[in-house]
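step: validate -> pass
step: tokenize input -> pass
step: predict -> running
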Amino acid sequence: MAKITVVGPGAMGCLFAVRLIRAGNKVHLVDYRADRAERLNKSGIVLEETDGTVFREHVPVSTSVPNGQDLVIVLVKSQHTGSLRFPPEVPVLTLQNGLGNVETLCNLVGSARVLAGVTTEAAHMVEEGRVRHAASGLTQFGAWTSCATTPVYRILQEGGFNVEVTESPGQLIWEKAAINAAINPLTALLDVPNGKLLDIPEIRQLMRDLVVEATKVAATEGYRFPHSLVERAEQVCRDTRNNVSSMLQDVRAGRPTEIRAISGEILRRAQLAALPTPRTRVVYQLIRGLESR
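step: predict -> pass
step: emit ->
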């Protein structure tokens, strides 16, 4: 039995917490909001699985990571990463969206304790403390420098996740960021599910252009992709046709989005490389405008 803390009580955090506790682990959930943590402690977490099965688990929730953990999984929004605090020695796995989270965590705990990756699990909040697992996916991660991966691989696999270990977590993060930088802002601006982006020729072309801009920025950091990210983005839209992106969910709920960690970070890195990214700049400004309404 492993002692695991999941940081972030959103859809993904609740999914991972319930799956891991049902696999026999001792799981703790961290929420930066004390009032919500108190409510979740009383109500428990409800997970609606893809086959319709419903599980309710009472997961301890607090505002800080307890000592003596074997693993911390970070699933908070990117804007909260810098405020996190961790006990010494514990490995930290980030599966967050966007760019810059790994660097922030390395500054907080040291690169030798950081594991990084991406997940294509799809989940959304039905209401506070209740999450619906919309579709199963693949979770890929690796050591940023030298952290052991085998114990974490085993924990996730036993939790029912489809898992792969990679030698290039940075490339996976960039690939997902490039695809998110196209799909997420456009779905949020148009208020449509992912698949609708393929049905409007002008928007489909804009999505492709946004992926190309992001791919060019990734190339300035030495990342080359063995497949077309444009084709991969379109396949994601087909595979998740009816899904509502996390950015659209945030806009609808009046919450801050992760636009700064996705399009904003791509813009920042493009500027360092003197690389123009005009379409990325426009969608970034428009989403920031939506957030300010």
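step: describe -> The mean pLDDT is 96.
step: cleanup -> pass
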